[in-house]
Amino acid sequence: MTPQTTPRALTDNPFTLGVASGDPLPDSVVLWTRLAPLPYEVGNGLPADGAVDVQWELASDESFRQVVQRGTVPAPAADNHTVHLDVRGLAPAATYWYRFRAGQWFSPVGRTRTAPAPDASVTGGARFGLLSCQQYDEGYYTALAHLAAEDLDAVFFVGDYIYENAINAQAGARNYTDRPLPDFFAHWTWNLDDYRLRYALGKSDPDLQAAHAAHPWYVTWDDHEVENNYAGDISQNNDPVDVFRARRAAAYRAYWENMPLREACRPNGPDALLYRRFQYGRLAQFDILDTRQYRSDQAYGDGWQYPGPETDDPARTLTGDEQERWLLDGFRASTARWNVIPQQVAFSRRKNTTADRSTLSMDAWDGYPASRERVLAGVRQAGIANLAVLSGDVHVHYAMDIKEDWDDPGSRTLGVEVVGTSVSSGFDGDERPDDWNLMLAANPHMKYYDGRRGYAVVSLDDTHLQADYRTLTGVLTPGAPVSTAARFVSEAGAPGFSAA
Q: What EC number(s) has UniProt assigned to this enzyme (predicted)?
């Protein structure tokens, strides 16, 4: 029998990292918390073995007068004292509130929402947040405070939840002078303790806690959850494969521990099944991708390079063969009004010169053109009329049309791509970066480009998709206001963005 820690022995508040919910189904949602009375210490200030019993409640009202379910669940030391509670038997399209208790301590209250029934019409449509790239030492998470106040059904986080870089005592741009960080953070993440503590640092941010408590999240990773621009088993610095796989195993384990994910996503060493599919009534099908774990190595390096024979090799893949088959099979079986692909890196072509031949990003889908063409061929063959790709990674807002022929602006538009800017990565950013005019001239399918921090809100109904691009005045000091910098619409059955 697993030894238990008596909750009454908790002399300090263990709910320092908040609560979260995620991966909502019509009858189920995952509830998450992590017990950490000492969040910046290895082991969270709790015993190194056994488990702590945690009570939980789920109610249909915020005051918890109408408790729907309650129980007790262990927070095992082996899982860094995290809880991943898969609550079942819930009503579809319903809002619930939840909380945890350990000893005398209550967690913050979280709000969550289940998905509609598979055959349901989603009257009034649905609204989703799009987030990515929150580097702790490059700015405050003010965007997340604003997102917490939005009226949303769920949030898509598409990568770079943490960064692996060393962080000084002043937390970089946050300039902590009155409460410096422990020296532990002043080195790059390599082992399990490193990654666990890096999540504790990020999750200690009150704005991130608020955003998790306000909405259920669908999450996927990109590269910085492990190491910048890694590709499968190949590290950016070409470390020995066994060394890098050990690092990847630690990173994947810490990721699962700290995200509201089901047991099916628990890693097995350096491998984890993170791509997954969700139905949102008859309105949408979400195919959430993992474009890091299975990809071929970047051609000609991982920066902006001229494409060549290696780039065009049809054997190269961004998704891996198995995930690609899963995606195309999902297209063929889909009966949803909208097919939505939340994923990591820019899908549409991005030239950085108006010349016929241009350098392209080898780390994005541009570096894997055959892989992208197979996906688009699957879209055409399945007769998908309303395709939307949701992306992050590049720390800017883009609105882009997905073209059948990237060299012919008049060719058929197969869908639209919403690229959301970063939460904080890249510091304040500029409304019009230095290459603003050039990028828009070189890419006629690019309808919008903004380099400031923020997030996007994507609204869907039976008639159209709407992308609202929210931006902040800055992230170097907390509390900046947010505004809607642009709004673009794509009509159902007639894909292509137009300003609204």
A: 3.1.3.1
- For residue 146, give the H/E element and its range: helix 142-148
Whether 120 and 281 have beta carbons less than 8 Å apart is answered as yes
In angstroms, the first-to-last Cα distance of the chain is 61
Which amino acid is present at 294? Y
> Could you tell me which residues come within 8 angstroms of residue 282 by beta carbon, excluding any fewer than 6 positions away?
118, 119, 120, 121, 122, 335, 336, 337
Beta bridge partners of 459: 127, 466
| pTM, 2 dp | 0.97
Closest CA to 454 of 487, 488, 481: 481
| Longest distance between any two alpha carbons in the chain, whole Å | 69
DSSP letter, residue 65: S
Each residue's pLDDT, cut to its tens digit, for the chain (500 residues) gives 355 555 557 899 999 999 999 999 999 999 999 999 999 999 999 999 999 999 999 999 999 999 999 999 999 999 999 999 999 999 999 999 999 999 999 999 999 999 999 999 999 999 999 999 999 999 999 999 999 999 999 999 999 999 999 999 999 999 999 999 999 999 999 999 999 999 999 999 999 999 999 999 999 999 999 999 999 999 999 999 999 999 999 999 999 999 999 999 999 999 999 999 999 999 999 999 999 999 999 999 999 999 999 999 999 999 999 999 999 999 999 999 999 999 999 999 999 999 999 999 999 999 999 999 999 999 999 999 999 999 999 999 999 999 999 999 999 999 999 999 999 999 999 999 999 999 999 999 999 999 999 999 999 999 999 999 999 999 999 999 999 999 999 999 999 999 99
Render the burial of 478-500: b for 16+ CB within 10 Å, e for the rest.
eebebeebbebbbeeeebbbeee
Side-chain-side CA neighbours of residue 126 (13 Å): 24
Write out the DSSP string of 217-245.
EEE---STTTSTT-BTTB-TT---HHHHH
At 163, list the tokens.
């960064």
Instruction: Kindly list the structural domains of the chain, giving each domain's residue range(s) and its CATH number in brackets, ordered by start.
Output: 1-114 (2.60.40.380), 128-499 (3.60.21.70)
Q: Which residues on neighbouring strands pair with residue 51, listed in sequence order? A: 4, 76
CA pair distance 142, 138, nearest whole angstrom: 12
- Strands of 132-201 (E only): list them: 154-157
Residue with tokens 């491998």: 271
Angle at 496 between CA 491 and CA 499, to 5 degrees: 80
